[in-house]
Prior knowledge:
The structure holds 2 protein chains of 2 kinds. Chain A is mostly beta strands. Chain A is built from no helices and 11 strands. Chain A has strands at 4-7, 10-13, 19-25, 33-38, 45-49, 53-54, 62-67, 70-75, 85-90, 98-99, 103-107. In chain B, a hairpin with a 5-residue loop joins strand 5 and strand 6. Chain B starts with a strand and ends with a strand. Classes of the chains: A mainly beta, B mainly beta. The A-B interface holds A 30-32, 34, 36, 38, 42-46, 49-50, 53, 55, 87, 89, 91, 94-102 and B 35, 37, 44-47, 50, 52, 56, 58, 60, 94, 101, 103, 105, 107-111, 113-116.
Amino acid sequence: DIQMTQSPSSLSASVGDRVTITCRASQSISSYLNWYQQKPGKAPKLLIYAASSLQSGVPSRFSGSGSGTDFTLTISSLQPEDFATYYCQQSYSTPIFTFGPGTKVDIK
Amino acid sequence: EVQLVESGGGLVQPGGSLRLSCAASGFTVSSNYMSWVRQAPGKGLEWVSVIYSGGSTYYADSVKGRFTISRHNSKNTLYLQMNSLRAEDTAVYYCARVVLYSSGYYYYYMDVWGKGTTVTVSS
């Protein structure tokens, strides 16, 4: 089974900061990597699919990169509405979808 | 508007059963892959099950043999039948549409999610 890890597990940042979250797969998953944002009490929201494709309607300050085993989600300038938990998800082993453990971004 | 609305959650005793529903609007359930994802209190997201448009079904090892995913085409509704429930099945259960994106390769992602329904397994 493919295992997903994320780092850091949490971070504190200020509005306007550049934020980078890393996701690592236990084996190569090419570009089969998605990113989701979840706010407390809400459903997850798709941000990035296929490692670097921005979902329609998602602000361009969000970007994704990477392939193989190492991936990055970057928020270029953190906004107040971006404080949330971020999850990566692999779809390489579809129909099995595995999520990472999440990275919580909160206010410094 | 594309929308998913879950229902059917509640409190159930260990060993009991529950059926969750996910009513779709704005698209056809049977033409898409559909999935269930759960989130235990204070924990991360866990994929539970998927049903393909062709009808094939797949499950996480943690629920295999106890949960059954299905759909009712004329009602445009997805279901999750949960039997032999355990305390560790306590979670918010989300249904989600799984989309295929093709660019030479086939990428899958979950683009529409319901708001979730809460299942509590406790005596």
